[in-house]
Amino acid sequence: MEGLGIDVKLLIAQVINFLLFFYIFKKYLARPFQKYLDEETKKQQEKEKLDQLLKQKEDEMAKTYEKKKKDLENQSKLFLEKAKKESLNYKKEMIEKAKKEAEEIIEKAKKQIEVERKNLEKETNKKIIELSTMILEKGIVDFLDEKIQKEVNKNILKNLKKIN
Amino acid sequence: MGEAVILSCYRLTDEEVADLVKKIPQLKLYQIKNIVDKKILGGLVIKFSDKIIDLSLKNRLTVIKEKLYEQL
């Protein structure tokens, strides 16, 4: 060995030195570092898991939101349709009512006009009767002289039944 | 003796009054007074006691007028 230029003692010392270094390195540096790496990996995994969970929750919430939005839209649509229908019905009812009231007013007015027409006709006829009798009275006064008056009286007495 | 009033458009002759008394004998019981009233238009109105016998043209016209009013 010595002929090869290898110092056995030195080699053994270096081997021991290496083994010692390896032991120390493994025990005090590699393991904590490995542990740190494992913990970091675990943390990363947990974080990823949490992220996934959060994403899942977010997706669920988004879906719920979409569903609720859709439901709300449907409800709004239904409500609007119902309101529109009710409004149309109300409009129809109001038109019918107004029409009926208008017909009643017209009917009432017609009746009133008829009553007024009859009253007017009656009044006119009364005036005609009054005027006619006045004209007749005037005619009688002008027409009946004493001679005719005598004839009238004679006729009255002739037709008068005896009164006891 | 009470008074009977006869309304006429002209003064009645005694003969006309007598004819009237013949038709209404109750008038014999009254003193007859003839009043000229042109408003009765023609004919006679006899008033005695509480009775009024209206034979005037004015009354006839009134009756006709009332009948016409009833028909309205």
Question: What do these coordinates show?
Answer:
The complex is a heterodimer of chains A (164) and B (72). Chain A is mainly α and 164 residues long. Chain A has one domain. Helix content of chain A is 91%, strand content 0%. The radius of gyration of chain A is 65 Å and the shape is rod-shaped. The N and C termini of chain A lie far apart (201 Å). The model of chain A has no long low-confidence stretch (mean pLDDT 92). Chain B has one domain. A four-stranded mixed beta sheet of chain B has the order 2-1-3-4. Helices cover 33% and strands 36% of the residues of chain B. Chain B is α+β, with helices and mostly antiparallel strands and 72 residues long. The mean pLDDT of chain B is 93.
Number of discrete domains of chain B: 1
- Radius of gyration of chain A, rounded? 65 Å
Mean pLDDT of chain A: 92
Shape of chain B: elongated
Rg of Cα set of chain B: 14 Å
**In whole angstroms, how far apart are the ends of chain A?**
201 Å
The percentage helix of chain B is 25-40%
Strand content of chain A: under 5%
Number of DSSP strand runs of chain A: 0
Helical stretch count of chain B? 2
What is the H-and-E element order of chain B? EHEEEH
Strand order of the largest sheet of chain B: 2-1-3-4
Number of domain units of chain A: 1
Q: Give unreliable regions of chain A as ranges.
A: none
**SSE order of chain A, one letter for each helix or strand:** HH
Looking at how many chains there are and whether they match, the oligomeric state comes to heterodimer
Q: Please state roughly what percent of the residues of chain B sit in beta strands, choosing from under 5%, 5-15%, 15-25%, 25-35%, 35-45% or over 45%.
A: 35-45%
Tally of helical runs of chain A: 2
What is the mean pLDDT of chain B? 93
